[in-house]
Amino acid sequence: MIKLVNQLKDYFDPPQDGPVTYEYYVRTGKCNQCGKCCSGIYLIHGEEVISSVPQFEDLKKRHEDYRHFLPIEETEQGIKFRCKHLQEDKSCGIYDDRPMFCKKYPSETTLLMGGSLAPQCGFSFKAKYSFTEMLDKAAEKKKLNPGKLLNDVKPA
Predict the structure, then answer these.
(1) Cys-Cys with 117: which of 85, 104, 121, 139 at CB 3.0–4.6 Å?
(2) What is the distance between the alpha carbons of residues 61 and 54, in angstroms, rounded to a whole number?
(3) Per-residue pLDDT tens for 56-86?
(4) Is 111 part of any domain?
């Protein structure tokens, strides 16, 4: 039971330094307060990048955490944002009360949704499995036999 509680705590409020193990990646390092994750960023709602200011204004009415951000630039990919609480020294003005997604950043979801860490970021990710191991795991989930083509699998 204690192990489960610790896993849940690490999921909802992961430590900000040292290794954190996720399903596919291990995150290492620590925040070096470069401020890049708080400025010039894209925000996601569901699995889509917020793409317009009206959409953002609507989301702010329904989801309190979006109120921490200001739109700064419109691009082909969507709207780039800056956190209102980013201080000139790159520290967080509300660190102890920051939103949950800030506490969880960066998680493997960042990578799985196509995001990346800034080059200056003190965190890094390492895959838990080799490419071959990942294929084997995927085949096992789909109940495929290694070496078989998808068309060769007979429906159950």
Answers:
(1) 121
(2) 11
(3) 999 999 998 899 999 999 999 899 999 999 9
(4) yes
What DSSP character marks residue 128? S
**How is residue 27 written in tokens?**
């995150």
Domain membership flag for residue 3: no
Longest Cα–Cα distance in the chain: 61
Report cis status (omega within 30 of 0) of the bond before 106: yes
Q: For the chain, how many structural domains are there in total?
A: 1
| Domain that includes residue 107, residue range | 10-138
CA distance 29 to 51: 32
Distance between CA 88 and CA 90 in Å, rounded?
5
